[in-house]
Amino acid sequence: MLELTKLSVGGATPEQQSELSAKLVEVNQYYLDRINAEWVESWKFLAAVNGTMLSVDRMAIYQDWLRGLSQRRMQDVTYAMEVARTLGGIDLKLSLGLTTREDLLTSTAA
Q1: Please, which residues have CB within 8 angstroms of residue 98's CB and are 6 or more apart in sequence?
Q2: Does the global pTM surpass 0.70?
Q3: Do the domain assignments include residue 15?
Q4: pLDDT, tens only, 33-87
Q5: Which of 35, 48, 50, 73 is most buried, taking the most CB atoms under 10 A from its CB?
Q6: Which structural domain, as residue segments, surrounds residue 61?
Q7: How far is it between the farthest Cα atoms of the chain?
Q8: What letter does residue 100 receive in the DSSP assignment?
Q9: Is 65 part of a structural domain of the chain?
Q10: Region at 10 (left for phi over 0; alpha for psi -120 to 50; beta for the rest)
C-alpha cells in the first residue's frame, strides 16, 4: 500500500517542501498587501486631485504621488531580489539533496 507521507515533490523532503511553501505564501501575501495598498493610494490620489481647483496644487499632488510611486517600486524591486536569492538557495538545496545547513557546509568544505 502506498503511504502518502512518503510522497514528495521532485524528491524533496516534507521539510524542504514546507520551507518552499512557506516562502511562496509569504511572497503571495506581500504582493496581495501591495495591491491593496496601491488601490487605496490610487483612490486617495484621485480624491486629492479632484478636490483641488488650482493647477499648481494638482501638480504638487502629481509630484508627491510620483515620488511615492517611485519609492514603492524600489521597495518592490528590493523585495523581489531578496526573494529570488532565497528561492535560489532553496532550489540549490533541493537540487543537491541537502536538508540542513550542516549538510550544505559539509558539501562546500569537501
Answers
A1: 92, 104, 107
A2: no
A3: no
A4: 999 999 999 999 999 999 999 999 999 999 999 999 999 999 999 999 999 999 9
A5: 48
A6: 20-109
A7: 76
A8: S
A9: yes
A10: left
